[in-house]
Amino acid sequence: MKQLIFIAILCCLLIPGYTYCQKQRGPDYAVGYSLDIRKIALEKLKADKAAGMDYIEIAGLGSFVNADLSLKIPQDEWLLKCDSLATVLKKTGLRVWSVHMPFSAKIDISTLDEQQRQQVIRMHLQLLEGLYRLHPQVILFHPSYYLEPNKRAARKDQLVRSVKELYSAVSKAGRKLVIENMLGPSLTVGERERPLLRTVEECQELFARFPHQVGIAVDMNHIAHPEQLLLAFGSRVKTLHVADGDGTKESHYLPCNGKGQNDWNKIFATLEKIKYKGVFMFECHYETTTQLVECYRQLQQIYSSTKQ
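RESULT FIELD:
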């Protein structure tokens, strides 16, 4: 028996990801980070891959959308651009885990203006026609922008309507649809109400009205004690936005710089408890992608030391 344990420990040291080692140190996730689509370039992604990065989340798509919700380039050019980006990605070995769909005051899937809501949906579907060529697994939407006062119930109805329509399209393409929780320490900020999905309770209320296959993207910068939201949604947690903060403002701190208040041991323990199977997707301030990979390993090592 002692010989078997010695062999297992030796394998743990020599073979990253060996099963015995995994059981001792907890889950080991693929690592990704949010990247503006305009910054996708061959040499950059090769360097990211060499640094230990596994995935990217494509962001910055609002740069391709006009104020009238039309695309800034013709649809055929958009498709060719996505084909070109797919070629770059294939050469690097870095994969697209998720796509962060654009959002703004006008790009709001909960808008009360039904004609505008339909335009927003059409615009998203136009973008997705090209983005599917990059083989993302997850398509992520914000539930709303800031709201006018006393319209929250009506906005929720519009959000549910949009999510059902988007789920129908995204699921037919074989992708997962997720909706992100939003920052909401108080209902109002100035004269506006905060976006939808601002608390655990509001998330639960609305997700009960969505198709049950729709998952949640847990943004750890948008809520104090994100482990509570993770635990409340369990297997419906399909992706993460990893950043530190205090749940009161958009800080997006790097988790390892000590500025935020998230308890990363509790977060890792909860991810393990709910058997999270997605990517550890950073959406935070950083200097180099190597810094992100090293930060993940540091967080994992600290958590592992608590399990010994």
